[in-house]
From TrEMBL:
The keyword Signal does not apply. Pfam families: Aminotran_1_2. One of its GO terms (molecular function) is L-tyrosine-2-oxoglutarate transaminase activity. It comes from Strigomonas culicis. This is Tyrosine aminotransferase. GO terms for biological process: L-tyrosine catabolic process. Keywords: Aminotransferase, Transferase. It comes from the Eukaryota. The keyword Zinc does not apply. The lineage of its organism: Eukaryota, Discoba, Euglenozoa, Kinetoplastea, Metakinetoplastina. Residues 2-235 form the Aminotransferase class I/classII large domain.
Amino acid sequence: MTNPSNPCGSNFSRQHVTDVVKLCERLHVPLLADEIYAGIVFQYESNPNKEFTSVADVESTCPRIVLGGTAKLHTVPGWRIAWLLLIDPANGASGCYKGLEAQATLVLGPNTLVQAALPGALQHTTQVHYDRTVAALEAGAMQFYNAIAQRAVRTTDGAPLLVPTLPQGAMYVMVQIMLERLDPAAITTDVDFYTKLNAEENVLVIPGSLFHADGFFRAVTTRPPEILAEAIDRIVAFCQRHERK
């Protein structure tokens, strides 16, 4: 599981995370949890899931491997350093730990300067910095969501051409493309939408079919407000230009 989610921008409730862990425990299935976006949870008033819950927070005998790293909340993706946590109360995954250790020793090679700097970065970075980072990411995501939801990304009779999904965390917004309302001679799939939007407006999104979400696209919302505003203008113009007549 990936939580908070790329590509969805979702954040699971504590109850949902607990249910997933307990299901794995009942089925005797180990759980691999990508939590690289841990801590990037939006705090707007109507968000029902304002807190991040790790699978490690659930009391269970289920073996869990949790991925964390510096690339997202710590905003240093170039460091290329991450970690795996093994939660194994019943000691049923000792062989897995040995395999991970061997893999890391033989294959992975984060540079020594970054390894030396990491403990200080984790121990001494202030909460103010993290809060400021999350606030900036939330502002970008909500700017994009609100603009697509409220602006004239609609047909002449008012039907939406794009339907954004309200983000709860991470740094993405998933948007449904109402393909039946676009010109079928030009756009019939999310890949067509992505290709033509890039070619005509120089705006790059990711087609949802890459994530098994046909008819959607994923937008990364980490750009400065003025860049996001221009991208939104271009997306609006593109959709209106290709509206089914």
